[in-house]
From TrEMBL:
Name the UniProt record assigns to this protein: Uncharacterized protein
Composition bias type Polar residues, residue spans: 111-122
Region called Disordered, residue ranges: 90-143
Organism field: Moorena producens (strain JHB)
Record keywords: Coiled coil
Entry keyword annotation includes Coiled coil: yes
Ranges in coiled-coil conformation: 254-281
């Protein structure tokens, strides 16, 4: 029994160390990813304006073009800060669900999850208080923490995906508001385009841009409906990682750590099973007596 306890303690220490490795790796990865997403959204918007809808861009005044570019740069800068903040954001949202008073105090600063803040002052990501990350929580409470680590990683990856989707939606909104993407396409269609599965749309020649065919009504009352092609932005994590080699080592490190976590999980559950069997055998012997 003592040997099994020692082996479990060693595994728990390994899980604690793994949580720290994940935190450091994701911190570096998200910093690079934020920069890359900002660069890719600018590049995708450039292609939309110059290749997708060049006439629409040329119809803008010089001042309108500059305002459009300024809005895109601002969104790119906010994104560079939002992605690294995901490490603290998950802990903040988790604390809010268990503490009603904290939830009430933060209510005024909340925003719908589907929106991107228009300024850094309005962003709860950028002004979030510094709190210990889930990985730090695991290091202080290692027992049975493999499930917590898996949950944290799942939420973190979901947060990355959602943030990239939200940035796509906001970029399309900016282009639509500036009349680059034609006004006849409702905003709801553009939001859906940014979230649709890649297999359901036609991928354009340029990365992070999609083409969707939709039915639109004719100009007159008797005109029949016709199919019209929408060109919109859909940032994809795979294309963003492919475009920047700085992200490759980070993603590879994450995959290696995930494989290590799977191995530790199997070993940990195996030792827990062995301990339960040993305890049951000892309990049987302790309660057994001969007639």
């Amino acid at each position: 029994m003592n040997r099994i306890d020692q082996e479990l303690a060693a595994l728990e220490e390994a899980i604690t160390h793994l949580a720290k490795e994940f935190q450091i790796t994701y911190s570096n990865y998200l910093t690079f990813l934020g920069q890359c997403v900002g660069q890719q959204l600018i590049m995708a918007a450039y292609r939309i304006c110059t290749q997708g809808y060049p006439e629409s861009f040329l119809n803008l005044s010089v001042n309108s073009r500059q305002q459009l570019q300024q809005s895109l740069r601002k969104l790119a800068q906010e994104t560079q800060q939002q992605l690294p903040s995901l490490l603290e954001q998950w802990q903040e949202s988790r604390s809010a669900t268990t503490d009603d008073s904290d939830h009430d105090s933060d209510h005024d600063s909340e925003m719908p999850s589907s929106e991107i803040p228009s300024s850094t002052e309005d962003s709860p990501f950028l002004n979030a208080p510094t709190e210990p990350s889930p990985a730090a929580e695991l290091t202080s409470n290692p027992r049975n923490s493999i499930e917590k680590l898996e949950e944290w990683l799942k939420h973190l990856e979901s947060g990355i995906t959602k943030t990239i989707q939200d940035v796509s939606v906001e970029t399309n909104r900016i282009l639509h508001k500036s009349s680059i993407i034609p006004d006849k396409f409702p905003q709801e269609i553009l939001e859906a385009a940014a979230k649709v599965e890649a297999s359901a749309v036609e991928t354009a020649e340029s990365p992070n841009i999609i083409k969707i065919m939709m039915e639109t009504k004719g100009d007159g009352e008797t005109d029949e409906s016709r199919l019209t092609r929408i060109i919109a932005i859909k940032l994809r994590l795979s294309e963003i990682e492919f475009a920047d080699p700085n992200l490759t080592p980070g993603r590879k490190k994450i995959r290696d750590l995930l494989a290590k976590m799977s191995q530790l999980k199997r070993e940990y559950y195996k030792k827990q099973r062995q301990k339960a069997v040993a305890q049951a055998e000892a309990a049987w012997r302790a309660s057994w007596f001969d007639d």
